[in-house]
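Worked problem 6 (solution included).
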Amino acid sequence: MQNWLSILQEFPVPEPAVTVPGGDVPPLEPLPRIILFDVYGTLVCPHLGDLDDQARLASGEDSFVATAERFGFGKDVGIKWHGWFFEAIASEHKELKEQGISPAEVQVDQIWADMIGMVGGDLTGSQPRMFAAYREMMANPVRAFSGAVEALRTLKERGVGLGIVSNSQFYTMPILGLTLGINPDEFFDPKLTFLSFELGFSKPSPYFFRLVKTTVLHLGLRPEEVLVVGNDLENDVLAAEAHGLQAVLFHGNDQSVRLGKGGLAGTVIANYQTLITACGL
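Solution. The predicted structure is:
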């Protein structure tokens, strides 16, 4: 049985996305001992965004049709999958919101297992994950932000702990590693890696950064010694600051930054060299 990770090799790694020019910002105070990065829009520049972004945009049916045809189904099946997919996400979000979990995170491979079964497809082995990963790569190709890998290496060499805070799915970390050309396990501490699909809820749920804060306290750190770097003002910056963590908005380019209704606020990092400087390195 083919491993789902082999699907990622069918897609070329694109050139990095150039970040916007930006000057220095004042040194962070206190200087962070831990830095937690968002993924989509922060370490990598996505075509669409995370799964919630795709659901809000009602991402087009082309990627579903391509997935159907890649795995031996017809166009009509792909069109059905497009409708079923976003209906399943909306239904689960609604059901869990009524239970007090908002925003909830879905298990995208389980949705694919259900949809494949509805058209009589093979559910053995890693088939649902293969379908899910292929559709994601078709719909939402990502590029590394220029300077991201170099910044991670510098931070690691200087003894700064690294982690992830991401609205994500099972394929997010492997795609991140492929795109950046790194082994994520060598850079990001698993104790400091918070992935929404593993938690069942997503940013900006107050539970998300409450969990982050509780974790760092148990590690003997103060919340203000932890820096969150993200492209979404509401999901990353404000949600993290509400729990006493430091946070900066990453404005790598106009395509990826998410300002909401508030506009630019607080410390804004335009590129990774600026981040390194702000960390006193």
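Discussion: The radius of gyration is 19 Å.
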